[in-house]
What we know:
By secondary structure, the protein is an alpha/beta fold. It has 13 helices and seven strands.
Amino acid sequence: xxxxxxxxxxxxxxxxxxxxxxxxxxxxxxxxxxxxxxxxxxxxxxxxxxxxxxxxxxxxxxxxxxxxxxxxxxxxxxxxxxxxxxxxxxxxxxxxxxxxxxxxxxxxxxxxxxxxxxxxxxxxxxxxxxxxxxxxxxxxxxxxxxxxxxxxxxxxxxxxxxxxxxxxxxxxxxxxxxxxxxxxxxxxxxxxxxxxxxxxxxxxxxxxxxxxxxxxxxxxxxxxxxxxxxxxxxxxxxxxxxxxxxxxxxxxxxxxxxxxxxxxxxxxxxxxxxxxxxxxxxxxxxxxxxxxxxxxxxxxxxxxxxxxxxxxxxxxxxxxxxxxxxxxxxxxxxxxxxxxxxxxxxxxxxxxxxxxxxxxxxxx
Length: 364
Ligand SMILES: [Zn+2]
């Protein structure tokens, strides 16, 4: 058995180089979608796309990584593992399914160890029309924003107590909902959805239009981390509110597919969901969409890491030691480097791919 470490990279730059090298001999088509911002090592940033198989196939399976930047340490590993999985690639070919691997949807966040992009935008809250119509309101966020991003880091005892009181008053569920569902009022805040289409989201829209829209049936696995029990891959329905689409996702991936809008997921029902792009970019295709969400640390620790990372963005004058500590906490919240976790991730990712291939093959 190969060491799993060769699939999991230490940096965006390394992951990108490995992805392109692994895809090159296999792909019918490779294309890069750059953004203007530069990486943490001064490197160019891009979302890279590899199409494997027949571009004219009726069916395509998309796998995306790093929608949430730093979560790409996991998702890139899943993609590199798939590229090295000759029996699975052959299975896709026999099933008449093309594979569209989209590496680093948010390359800035991947490189800079951040969940959000160069404008602090959470791409998975950014798929809004931004056409002057009101954006989804989230007044509960404004009530806690000041507590989430205090003047000092790490937070003082006073700040911790104030947050505990807030949770006591409003309830944990309502607080979690307010913090994470998405907000459009505090650009320096958590889970900020932006005020326009982010560059990386525009790239993804173009990728879907160019490479996915010609296929009649689309399966999509968007790999995430940071929610749920360590190493557990929660299969989260990612499509619109449509019972027949939910039923199809459960037919493919199992009746344990969780549905945020029905309250059965570790994820709250979010606004501006990125997978929603498929409906406008591929209007003639039938999509079946799933986020595969791997657990890392307890939710409180993940939120603390996110707060620290946003605090650092607002305080570039922070010293080297504190900067390193915050970045390490962010990485730890979204990626577990241990072999047992990596094995759990790759095993469950492989199952999800196989299930999607079977689902796509069976669809007429
Ligand atoms: Zn995520």
